[in-house]
């Protein structure tokens, strides 16, 4: 590891955990990433991505979002819903659009033309993860919880090759059995979500819980790379497993 490398500034990003009540209990929408992706190829993740400049331009969204006053995390919330629409085709608004959505238009223009408000007030902060300092590409990611509005998810066939509505507990079981790859933050967010049995319970837990900024620490040991987090984050787990580290390492190797 190059200790003289300049630490990269993390780019703002958002991710959204859309949940619904399924026949077997709580379900969350997850994306299967294409194996050709530079980062975390083949992993299952939640919809999300970088915060765009347009997401940060509050004037652009005047009168087009739900909620009262300016929210500290306004741009992150807008980005979460924009990414959800772009990656999964799910549009969370205060009411049904008055006209067919046109994906070719800029997102803010599409929302305005639809005659609706982007429902940022329905998002509940769930987690906050920052990529470890030694990593060359870093993100400062806010995770949100949102109830599903019933729209069908449609994958883009590019970054996302499939969607799954899954039980968090089943997803964790599949990970344990080496059926699916997960990144460290994804597994811990699933563990936290699995504490609830219904959408209402999950939202209630999230509203009551304090979101702790989680910055994993990377150490080199005789056994190899070790990734740990502060116990105060409240996930109940403090170290990544070799399986999780290999998922991210695959993306780094592909970049190199």
Automatic annotation (TrEMBL):
Residues 9-189 form the Nudix hydrolase domain. Keywords: Hydrolase, Magnesium, Manganese, Metal-binding. The keyword Metal-binding applies. Its cofactor is Mg(2+); Mn(2+). PROSITE patterns: NUDIX. The keyword tRNA processing does not apply. InterPro entries: NUDIX_hydrolase-like_dom_sf (IPR015797), NUDIX_hydrolase_dom (IPR000086), NUDT19 (IPR039121). This is NUDIX domain-containing protein.
């Amino acid at each position: 590891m190059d200790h003289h490398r300049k630490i990269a500034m993390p780019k703002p990003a958002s991710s959204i955990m859309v949940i619904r009540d399924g026949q077997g209990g709580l379900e969350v929408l997850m994306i299967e990433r294409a194996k050709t992706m530079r980062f975390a190829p083949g992993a299952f993740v939640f919809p999300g991505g970088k915060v765009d400049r347009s997401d940060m331009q509050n004037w652009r969204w005047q009168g087009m979002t739900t909620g009262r006053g300016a929210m500290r995390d306004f741009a992150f919330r807008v980005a979460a819903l924009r990414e959800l629409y772009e990656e999964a085709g799910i549009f969370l608004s205060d009411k049904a659009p008055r006209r067919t959505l046109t994906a070719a238009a800029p997102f803010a223009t599409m929302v305005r033309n639809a005659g609706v408000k982007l429902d940022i007030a329905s998002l509940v902060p769930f987690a906050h993860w920052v990529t470890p300092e030694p990593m060359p590409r870093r993100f400062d990611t806010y995770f949100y919880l949102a109830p599903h509005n019933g729209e069908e998810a449609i994958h883009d066939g590019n970054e996302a090759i499939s969607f799954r509505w899954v039980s968090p507990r089943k997803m964790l079981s599949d990970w344990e059995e080496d059926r699916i790859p997960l990144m460290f933050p994804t597994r811990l967010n699933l563990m936290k979500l699995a504490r609830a049995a219904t959408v209402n319970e999950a939202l209630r837990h999230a509203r009551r819980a304090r979101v702790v900024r989680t910055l994993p620490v990377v150490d080199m040991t005789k056994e190899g790379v070790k990734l740990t987090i502060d116990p105060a984050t409240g996930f109940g787990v403090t170290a990544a497993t070799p399986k999780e580290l290999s998922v991210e390492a695959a993306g780094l190797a592909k970049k190199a």
